[in-house]
Design a protein that fits this description.
The protein is an alpha+beta fold and about 725 residues long. It has a four-stranded antiparallel sheet with strand order 4-5-3-8, with helices on one face. A three-stranded antiparallel sheet has the order 13-14-15. The protein has a two-stranded antiparallel sheet with strand order 1-2. A hairpin with a 2-residue loop joins strand 13 (about 675-680) and strand 14. This is C2H2-type domain-containing protein. Pfam families: ARS2, DUF4187, SERRATE_Ars2_N. InterPro entries: DUF4187 (IPR025239), GPATCH11 (IPR039249), SERRATE/Ars2_C (IPR007042), SERRATE/Ars2_N (IPR021933), Znf_C2H2_type (IPR013087).
């Protein structure tokens, strides 16, 4: 059915006589109406809308209202093209109101966490807390909300609040360290490892036995020192790229630079000639105890080892225990050092093969008989392992413990770590020498009145200096000045890139500095071999094996050529206790003097300097990245020196910063938890098994000191124990 038939079937108005239907065009009423003169009268008009005397934003537009119904879409299309609700363009109360303010901090309180958060995390929590506090005060007072601030004002506010955040962060760290230290001491104060380190009644007998063992180490050290073993010993390191593999430096070509300006890591140094000595105690026959429960005391284990191994040749010599591991329920490792067997005893224990015993007369094997290889003889460690492994320590009170051992094999090539370049500055060497000398004298006084390690080392170094045996580490080989002059013609100038002979005069150690470095090197090695103490890591062990587990090979100093001008300035500040001398961009805080000096230097280089010197000067000039690295080095050196002073001057240590409290203040704070104020003049004692009332805290305090003597003494001991724990620079971290 076409469009014409559809229209024809619909009722049509009568307009004059009927016409022929053979021509559909002539029968079209629309065409007739357009042609008719009275088409305006006959045209159907749609009804006008109702009168509207107000604005309706949701009313349809006029064009849509007058749309022809023939063009009206189907319901499905209408659903697809349904218009979005129009935007409201009139005022609605509450439309422009700001979002509700945050009244609960989404970040948890740092004091309630088990670890110390970083500064950025704390700053975000602090700012949120301040906003919440201001919003609550505003709601309470009915003040209008603050106006929006611009970017510049926001940056100024951030800069102004940073000192406040830093002060709050420092206070947070002190409070957290105090809380963690008290919790850690309360949990572990009854364990044996804690008591032998911090309780005087247990610590002094253990230190006495340890000093007896160290007296043998001192005798061995003194014999090696007098025998010349340490005459060439040094802590000076060589860059791997410049080492010749024999403890020396490769010969450089003319104009070749060093690796001083490169970014180097901790393991990029090799020891110089004489600096790769190993402690022979590390090669002593030793058994490794894989794990020791915290319930096993040192006394019981020593008695167990002496019972099964004896104390003769190949028997028990010393027991060493590591620090407990908090992540493994405070279990420890251990080492049993054994006495060496004599050569005669080893030869007697060596089995003889059948070929040797059967043909002893002929001296050769029988014809057609394959000679049997002699079995490898068991060494001292393997013999001791058979005697003690899988044995049980009987303890009816704490429970039995089965010992599992193995043969300890020390590392073949212990890795040496490179120190920060600040330690190569002459001022820093002198400061470290003073600290090391004081520490050695303190430990020698504990060892005995007849032991003088510092004086022995000083006498030996002076003897070497008088003989002219103290020489700096071999520098880059250069041709002699006379030969160099002969190679050049009289009118010939130096080639571009050649470095003058006196270019590195500042990097050459003078005799006084050589003596200081030699004393420092021997004192550091003396502390490692006799007291099993790492001077730069600041921790003490009871054997060389525990020392090598934490610090395998010791430390090396970087060559002085790696020191930039900024590094020298920072090293000077660290040695004399000054503040960090550089800004964030790497420039010195003494801007006038520094800028004037740099300007003169740049002028000289620009006029008369070579490209090599210009590149070297550019590398030595400080920048933001170098300043950040120097800041890390400065902080590391400062922390290391503070830890050393905790050993040397424990009475001058800031207890609050470490997490402790002064004794009287700490006792008062702990005792205040056991008194309760019930009225204006009524204070009740809540010490266990006591409920007496007092008129004031003074009367209550006298009551505690008189009637609760044991309780009062226990509080004093707990506060003193916490202070002793935090003052120890090598204490186990609570977290």
């Amino acid at each position: 059915m076409d469009a014409y038939d559809t229209y024809a079937r619909s009722p049509q108005p009568v307009r004059g006589p009927p016409r022929e239907r053979d021509d559909y065009r002539s029968a079209d009423p629309y065409r007739d109406r357009r042609r008719s003169p009275d088409r305006r009268r006959d045209r159907r008009r749609s009804r006008s809308p109702n009168q509207i005397d107000r604005y309706q934003p949701d009313r349809l537009p006029r064009d849509d209202y007058y749309r022809d119904r023939r063009d009206d879409p189907t319901p499905r299309e209408r659903r697809r093209s349904s218009p979005q609700p129009p935007a409201i363009d009139r005022y609605v109360p509450g439309q422009d109101a700001p979002p509700p303010q945050l009244l609960v901090n989404p970040l948890p309180d740092p004091m309630k966490l088990d670890f110390q958060v970083g500064f950025t995390w704390f700053a975000e929590w602090w700012r949120t807390e301040q906003r919440i506090k201001e919003e609550k005060d505003r709601q309470r007072s009915g003040k209008p909300p603050p106006r929006l601030r611009g970017e510049r004002e926001t940056r100024e506010d951030r800069d102004a609040e940073r000192p406040k955040i830093q002060a709050a962060y420092d206070q947070y760290k002190e409070s957290l360290q105090k809380l963690q230290a008290q919790t850690f001491v309360r949990l572990h104060k009854l364990e044996d490892w804690f008591r032998e380190r911090y309780v005087p009644e247990v610590k002094e007998p253990f230190r006495g036995r340890l000093m007896d063992f160290r007296k043998t180490l001192f005798a061995r050290w003194q014999a090696d020192l007098e025998g010349g073993v340490f005459d060439e010993f040094t802590l000076e390191g060589i860059y791997k790229s410049e080492s010749n593999g024999l403890g020396g430096i490769l010969e450089k070509e003319e104009g070749e630079t060093t690796a001083a300006a490169e970014v180097l890591g901790v393991g990029d140094l090799l020891p110089s000639k004489g600096g790769d000595l190993r402690d022979l105690m590390a090669l002593q026959p030793t058994l490794l105890i894989k794990t020791i429960a915290p319930t096993v005391t040192r006394e019981k284990f020593e008695a167990f080892a002496k019972e099964h191994l004896g104390e003769g040749e190949g028997g028990y010599m010393h027991l060493s225990l590591s620090d407990p591991n908090p992540l493994k329920k405070c279990h420890r490792m251990g080492w049993i050092l054994l006495n060496s067997e004599s050569d005669q005893a080893i030869e007697d224990a060596t089995p003889v093969s059948k070929a040797e015993s059967g043909n002893a007369e002929d001296g050769e094997a029988a014809e057609g008989e394959v000679p049997m290889m002699p079995p490898r003889p068991k060494n001292t460690s393997e013999k001791a392992l058979e005697k003690i492994n899988a044995k049980t320590i009987e303890d009816p009170e704490r429970g039995n413990f089965t010992v599992h051992c193995g043969v300890h094999r020390p590392p073949e090539a212990p890795r040496k770590k490179a120190l920060w370049d600040l330690f190569s500055a002459p001022e820093r060497v002198a400061r470290d020498l003073d600290l090391a000398t004081r520490l050695v004298r303190k430990l020698d006084n504990e060892l005995g009145d007849e032991y003088f390690g510092a004086a022995t080392i000083e006498a030996r170094v002076q003897q070497l200096a008088d003989q002219g045996l103290l020489q700096p580490v071999a520098a880059a080989c250069k041709p002699p000045k006379a030969d160099a002059d002969m190679d050049m013609d009289a009118g010939e100038v130096e080639e571009e890139g050649m470095i003058a002979d006196d270019a590195d005069e500042d990097e050459i150690d003078d005799p006084e500095l050589l003596v200081k470095k030699k004393k420092l090197d021997l004192l550091v090695e003396y502390l490692r071999r006799v007291y099993n103490l790492c001077f730069f890591c600041v921790f003490e062990s009871d054997s060389v094996h525990e020392l090598q587990r934490k610090c395998p090979g010791g430390h090396l100093r970087r060559p002085r050529a790696s020191l930039t001008n900024a590094a020298k300035e920072v090293a000077h500040a660290s040695a004399f206790g000054d503040e960090f001398p550089l800004r964030k961009n790497g420039t010195s805080k003494n801007a006038a003097e520094t800028s004037r000096g740099e300007g003169e230097e740049e002028t000289d280089l620009g006029e008369n300097g070579s490209p090599v010197e210009e590149r070297k000067a550019a590398a030595m000039k400080p920048n933001a990245r170098n300043a950040q690295q120097l800041q890390r080095a400065f902080n590391w050196v400062k922390t290391y020196e503070e830890k050393i002073l905790q050993w040397l001057e424990p009475e001058n240590v800031g207890l609050r910063k470490l997490g402790g409290t002064p004794l009287e203040e700490g006792v008062e704070e702990e005792l205040s938890k056991f008194v309760k104020q019930e009225d204006a003049s009524k204070y009740r004692c809540i010490v266990p098994e006591c409920t007496k009332l007092f008129k004031g805290t003074d009367f209550w305090r006298k009551h505690v000191e008189k009637r609760h003597v044991e309780f009062n003494e226990r509080v004093y001991n707990d506060v003193r124990l916490v202070n002793t724990y935090v003052v120890d620079p090598a204490h186990i971290a609570p977290s």
